[in-house]
Amino acid sequence: MTTIREPQILPRIASPFDLRTLSEAELQQLSGEIRDTLCDLVSVRSAHFASNLGVVELCIALHLVFDFSNDRLIWDTGHQIYPHKLVTGRYHEFATMRQKGGLMGYPNPSESPYDLFMTGHAGSSVSTVLGLKAADDLISPQKRRSVAVIGDGALPSGIVFEAFNNAAGLNKDLLVILNDNKMGICPRVGGVAKYLDQARLTPSYSNFKRDLSKVLRQIPFVGDSMQRGLSQLKEAMKLYLHGGMLFEELGFRYIGPVDGHDLKSLRQYLEMVKDLEGPVLLHVFTEKGHGFAPACEDPVLFHAPPPFERHDEEVVSIKKSSNRAYTDAISDAIHVAMTRDPKVAVITAAMCEGNKLNQVRNEFPSRFFDVGICEGHGVAFAGGMAKAGMRPIVDIYSTFLQRSFDQIFQEAALQNLPVTFCLDRAGLCGPDGPTHHGTFDNSYMRVFPNMVLVAPGDETDVAPMLDFALTYDGPVSIRYPKCNVETIERPAQPVELGKAEVLSWGRDGMLIACGTLFSNCVKAAAELRKQGLDVGVINARFIKPLDETTLLRALREAAFVLTIEESTLVGGFGSAVLELANDHGVNTSHMSRLGVPDRFIEHGERGEQLADLGLDVAGIVKAAKELAKTSNVVTAEPRAFAG
To answer: Mind listing the domains of the chain with CATH numbers?
Structure first.
């Protein structure tokens, strides 16, 4: 797609200071150029879109009023960072967004000093900005203002209210901007959402306050009793019009609501609150997808849409993939289970769309629970449901489930309750990068007694594993990646507790696959057999408990053993196998592990990441051949592989 309007101003913005040289008309033009640039990006690759369209004016206003080369700014959640990147000198790299070696789709301190934290999870901005402010007050010789921009979807996160409580107690000069667009990724839910909806329906309080001030200025004398009465009237009107003074009761001075797309008004309000003392909350109304009609009409689809073509304000076509993903397979299996058993319920944390649970929500609304971005609460809530006799499924991305570590421990594992955890995006998440890779769940789930961990090798395993979990009397974790399904043709084998699936035994070596890299292992074994190595394949299925009999046999009989997992090697599946061998006094000098090393993996396409880590077919073949050499395996004559 060609750009509808070639940008004239944006390429000249080398830093936020350049914004201050622009006229009001030029600033309005710049807003349009930023939106066009966002549209250009999404015409070639999937990227966060509607949320960024909604903060263009807010971003410009913030950089006009504050000096964030000295002041502090945290965007929460960081997927709304694109306009900020454009006005902080990254326009000429913008086309590399979410590509390997290019700009990250979230804030990245290595890219710019204007990015202070990688903020890929919601809710932490107020805490981190408060920490920055507390430290600056102690050690900085110059005044530094601190600003957090938080969305209404992230607002209900428990950590936000912990930070509000602490900020009020410390009485630090802190500005929190509530970017209220009525959305997370999906429409917001819960009591806080209802409170904010009421504020949207009654925006007349600001007009009332302004008119009251005009009246007071015209009265020549106002006595003490009159002043008190007017003050009480103002507070009563505020209480009536807003349905409560939540933020003021929490210790924040509340200002707003403000039109988040009126650049001039935004600047005036920001100038007004910039030097106020104590914690301040500025409530800004924005529209997710603003400036691009299709995104306004369907902000859920356009949160991070597939590439699309457009003409002016119309979408010509969206290049949707017809491929079936593991998320689809799990959601279908959940739907079948809920149809079959009225005790099965599903809980998600503001990710109905991402987890493909729309059909479940629509057909079983009484057993579908979206708790908002409150993962810890969601797990504890599931514990309560399980204790009362239900079979709850907690369907949350692996990277977000980390936020509920204590509740997994206390309310699920310790109580030995039948809570099923479906860990979506377990493994490498491609362009989303290090904040979103689900590479740690094997390690953090494996430590808990009573917890059972399974990983499907292919689509054939998905439904039987969910059925197993929903009939098991304890907590079960099922992990699966963000990729298209594959199916390995072989005779069906039932899913039994702690039982691996042996596809084939090999005289020279064994590949033990943990999860959906099973298909790569099957292909690698075929290639190794062509090169003269008789290599077998095991689909581990269970990470905990391990199939001790099968794995110990492989370690004792095969000339070499290679474990393969799409998770961190530290504390992962391969480590579990080493622990098993050590417990039984089995030699492991002929064993090696492939997985994610002890470092954060940068963004890029998942295929690129697998290749870089040696987890693609070529990498597995290479590792196996090197291990065969060190294990003194004599390569036989190359022979054709049948099967």
So the answer is: 10-202+243-297 (3.40.50.970), 326-479 (3.40.50.970), 501-630 (3.40.50.920)
- The answer to whether the beta carbons of residues 302 and 313 sit under 8 Å apart is no
Compute the distance between CA of residue 169 and CA of residue 221 in angstroms, rounded to an integer: 37
First-to-last alpha carbon distance for the chain, in angstroms, is 46
Q: Is 288 a catalytic residue?
A: yes
**What is the rounded distance in angstroms from the CA atom of residue 466 to the CA atom of residue 476?**
9
Three-state DSSP class for 53?
helix
Q: Is residue 1 a contact partner of residue 309, using CB atoms and an 8 Å limit?
A: yes
Which of 375, 411, 565, 608 is flagged as catalytic?
375
Hey, is 605 helix, strand or coil?
coil
Helix (H) or strand (E) holding 259: strand 253-259
Per the residue annotation, which of 288, 310, 356, 425 is the catalytic one?
288
**Cα separation, 364 vs 626, whole angstroms:** 53
Strands 314-318 and 308-311: antiparallel
Contact 76, 122 (CB under 8 A): yes
CA 612 to chain centre: 23
391 is a catalytic site residue? no
Alpha carbon distance 15, 37 (integer Å): 17
Contact by Cβ (8 Å): 273, 281: no
Segment 274-297, tens digit of pLDDT: 999 999 999 998 887 686 766 676
Q: Which is nearest to 288 in space by CA: 296, 300, 280, 278?
A: 296
Instruction: List residues bridging with 395 in a β-sheet.
Output: 422
Looking at 145, 403, 425, 541, which residue is catalytic? Answer: 403
Summarised one tens digit per residue, pLDDT across range 238-274 is 544 553 378 888 888 999 888 989 999 999 999 999 9
Q: How many CB atoms lie within 10 A of CB 422?
A: 29
Instruction: Report helix, strand and coil shares of the chain as percent, to nearest 5.
Output: 45, 15, 40
Catalytic residue list contains 403: yes
pTM tops 0.70, yes or no: yes
As given in the structure block, the two tokens for residue 219 are: 């009265």
Output the DSSP codes for 388-436.
Answer: TT-EEEEEEEHHHHGGGHHHIIIIIITTT--PEEEEETBB--GGG-TTT
Distance CA 118, CA 124 (A): 11
